[in-house]
Amino acid sequence: METPNFSIEFFPPKTDEGAEKLRAVRQKLAELQPKYFSVTFGAGGTTQQGTLQTVLEIKAEGHQAAPHLSCVGGSRESLRAILQQFQDNGIRRVVALRGDLPSGYGAGGEFRYANELVEFIRKETGDWFHIEVAAYPEMHPQARSPQDDLQAFARKVQAGANAAITQYFYNADAYFDFVDNARKLGVDVPVVAGIMPITNYTQLMRFSDMCGAEIPRWVRNKLASFGDDSASIKAFGLDVVTSLCERLLAGGAPGLHFYSMNQAAATTAIWQRLVK
Ligand SMILES: Cc1cc2nc3c(=O)[nH]c(=O)nc-3n(C[C@H](O)[C@H](O)[C@H](O)COP(=O)(O)OP(=O)(O)OC[C@H]3O[C@@H](n4cnc5c(N)ncnc54)[C@H](O)[C@@H]3O)c2cc1C
Question: CB-side exposure of 186: number of CA atoms within 13 Å?
């Protein structure tokens, strides 16, 4: 099989121990030769230095790295300074998001939506950055309707995004329907599928509730039936997610973006099955 485009996401570690662990994880994942690694960005200042630091470490190890950048809670001035820092460090790729403020931060900020951030990045830095934005095949949880959300996605592309990465999902039809509808609106950028490996039932349910990803009933029931038998959860999760990836790639998805959760094993196992 021809190797599809793929990328891997990390979150910035909070402790020295976490940073050390992530270095080892990265070393393993680098063997899979992803196109780039991306590093998330905490709205409200929580992990922003950690994002740049992790990206610079990845670059120093000889790999492409893309910081995420979220605009909620930020000002033009603060975002300009961050973009300048990225440019000064030779970073050419960024994942541009609105972000979610941690509770207690209020609303605030000079940007309301991610399309405004994309527009700002283009205005400030021209074509320096390859910009990726988020897309939601199962609809962003705060959107009024799937149509509104699709329009919001189209606005991000019109503002200058080069490509999109989706929120994770386990229903390939939602992805294909989203891409079809985007094409009908004239949006023709690559929409890379975001992939969340399944390794832990409780964590998966918690994340999915927050971000609006649907876990199909049969998958949920089966995972629940394994109780704390983590080996069975992982084995079943590997089967489910590998077949999802196979379907996506066979149906024309231009690539896969793995939410690694700073772990190497699950992403590696899925990848090895896909390329064998
Ligand atoms: C690939 C990926 C990576 C991510 N990385 C991070 C990260 O590093 N840090 C982080 O904090 N979060 C991250 N997130 C989560 C993301 O920040 C949240 O999902 C956030 O709630 C929305 O961000 P967005 O960029 O999609 O926002 P937007 O595209 O701005 O959309 C947000 C909501 O507003 C609606 N909307 C947009 N424009 C309008 C308008 N003009 N009027 C009314 N409604 C509108 C949309 O339909 C949607 O419901 C990531 C998500 C994905 C899919």
Answer: 3
Q: Looking at residues 62-89, what average pLDDT do you find?
A: 96
Q: How many CB atoms lie within 10 A of CB 46?
A: 15
| Mean per-residue pLDDT, 215-223 | 97
Report CA 18 to chain centroid distance, whole Å: 20
Q: Please give the single-letter amino acid code of residue 272.
A: Q
Please, what are the domains in the chain? 5-274 (3.20.20.220)
Instruction: Indicate the pTM of the whole model.
Output: 0.97
65, β-bridge pairs: 37
Which atom in ligand 1 lies closest to the alpha carbon of residue 99?
A: 17
C-alpha 23/C-alpha 19 separation (Å) is: 6
* Ligand 1 pocket residue status of 54, Cβ below 6 Å: no
Give dist(CA 138, CA 213) in Å, integer.
7
CB atoms within 10 A of CB 113: 15
Q: Is the beta carbon of 140 within 6 A of some atom in ligand 1?
A: yes
